[in-house]
Amino acid sequence: MNKKLLFIALILSCTVHSRAQEVKVDAEIRSRAEYRDGFQQPLLDTEDAAYVNNLRTKLNLSYKGEDIKAKLTLYDNRTYGKTAIGSTGGSLGVLEAWGEYAFTPQLSFTLGRQGLEYDDKRLFSYNNWSNTQSAHDLLLLKYAGAGLTVHVGSAYNNEKDGNSWVPYPTSLTYKTLNFIRAEKAFGKISASALWVNDGFEGEDTEKANRFYRNTVGAYLWLSDKKSPTTFTLNGYYQFGKDKSDKELNAYLLSAKAQQQLSRLWALQIGGDLFSGSDKNIESGKNNTFNKLYGTNHAFNGSIEYWRNLPVQGLVDLYAGATFKRSRLSVNLTYHNFSTQKEFQTGEGKNIGSEVDITVDYTVNSRLAIQGGWSAYIASTGTEILKKQTGVDTRFPQWAYVQLTFKPVFFNK
User: What is the pLDDT of residue 210?
Assistant: First the structure.
C-alpha cells in the first residue's frame, strides 16, 4: 500500500507538470542514531543505556502557478528493527496538504494542513528536530506589502466526522485556534507582535464547556546582517483559562546576544525566564507559562530535561561559543537551570546544569551530517522534580549522529 501511494504521487506530479508553471518533487531521508544514557530523565543504576536508530522520510510535491500554490508532503517514521523483514510497517501518512490562492500579489490565503513557524520558533514551530513533526489544520490569511507582513489564522477541530456535538479531548490539541501576527522593519531593527487565542473543551456532555487561553507579546531582533553584534528580545503574557479551567496569569521573558569575534569565532549569551506557580498557590489559579506549539529541542538544553516546564517555572542562563569554517560548524553551550519559584521548603531553586556540544558538517546541498553530545549535572532539585530522591542514578549523558539526504527528483 505504501509503494502504491508513492507511485501515485509521482504520477500526479508529472501529470500536473503539463499545465503548471513550476513543479518540484523532492525528498528528505533522515537517519538518526542515539545513545541514551539519561536522555530526558536520569537512568537508575539498575538500568542500561539505550542505543536507538530512527528513520524519517518525507516526499514533497509542490506546485507554483501564477495565482495558485499547493504542497503535498507524504511522511513516514519508523524505528530500525520495529518493522519485520518483508513487512512495510512504519507510519505513512500526510504531514502537509494545502492550497494557496493569491487575490493580489500582496494578499492571499492558504487552506489545509500546514506547518506554522514564526520568529525564533518558540511558540510556533514545524518541529524539524522531532521524528514526528507538527502541522495545523487551518485557514491562513496572508498580507505582505509596504514593509508590513500580517498573518491571520483560524482553526476549528473535531475528533471525528459526526452529526452531533461531542467534547473535543484536550489530549489531542485545541478545539479552536485564532491568531494574528504582524511584522515590520524599523531601520536595522525588526519587530513582530503576536496574539494567540486557543480554546479547549471540558468533559461536560450536556453542553460545550470551553476554556480560552490568550497569549500576547512581541519579538524584537537586529536585522542588520553586517553588524558583528546580533540580539533578540521577546516577551509574552498569558491570561484567561488553561486546559483545566484554571485562571491563568503567566509570562515569558527571553534575551539572547551574539558577538562575532572574528571570521571563525562567535560568542553567545542569553537567558530565558518562564514564570511558575508557587507551592502555596490559591486553588483554581495557574501561573506556569505554556510554550504553546513551539519547538522543545532548540531551547533549554539538548538533553531535554525541561521540555515540559516545571510547575514552578524555569530560569535558564546560558553562554556558548561557535567555531565556523566553510562547511563545518561546532558549538559549545553551558546552561545553568533553576526554577522561578521554590519547589520545596529549604531546597531553594537550583535544578542542575548542562553542557551541550553540537557539530554540523555540510557535505553538499544534498547531504548534511550532524552530531552531538550532552551531559547533565544533576542536583538535589533535579532529583526532586524528576521524582528520584533516595535512589542511585547513572551520570546523565546523550549522544547522536544524524545523516540527512535531500534528493531532488524533478524541478521544472
Answer: 84
Show Cβ contacts of residue 15 under 8 Å, excluding neighbours closer than 6 positions.
none
Q: How far apart are CA 211 and CA 71, in angstroms?
A: 33
Residue among 43, 108, 37, 110 nearest 70 (CA): 110
68 CB neighbour count, 10 Å cutoff: 14
Q: How many CA atoms lie within 13 A of 223 on its CB side?
A: 13
Cβ neighbours of residue 52 closer than 8 Å, sequence gap 6 or more? 33, 34, 36, 79
Report whether 196 contacts 188 (CB < 8 A). no
pLDDT above 90 covers a percentage of the chain that reads 80
The C-alpha atoms of residue 73 and residue 96 are separated, in whole angstroms, by 5
For residue 109, the Cα-to-chain-centroid distance in whole angstroms is 23
Q: Which DSSP letter does residue 62 get?
A: E
CB 318 within 8 A of CB 333: yes
Is the pLDDT at 17 greater than 50, yes or no?
no
Express each pLDDT in 68-111 by its tens digit.
Answer: 999 999 999 999 998 888 777 777 899 999 999 999 999 999 99
How far, CA to CA in Å, does 186 sit from each of 181, 204, 221, 224, 326?
Answer: 16, 48, 10, 11, 32
**Cell numbers found for residue 342:** 521554590
pLDDT of residue 204: 63
Q: For residues 266 and 229, what is the distance between their CA atoms, to the nearest angstrom? A: 9
Residue 289: closest CA among 271, 270, 312, 305? 312
> Given 2.60.40.1120, 1.20.1250.20, 2.60.40.10, 2.40.160.100, which CATH number is that of 2-411?
2.40.160.100
- pLDDT given for residue 206 in this prediction: 58
Coil, helix or strand at residue 302:
coil
Distances (CA, A) of 267 to 107, 211, 256: 40, 43, 11
Per-residue confidence (pLDDT) for residue 166, from 0 to 100: 83
pTM given for the model? 0.91
Where in the chain are the domains?
2-411
Residue type for 237, please? Y
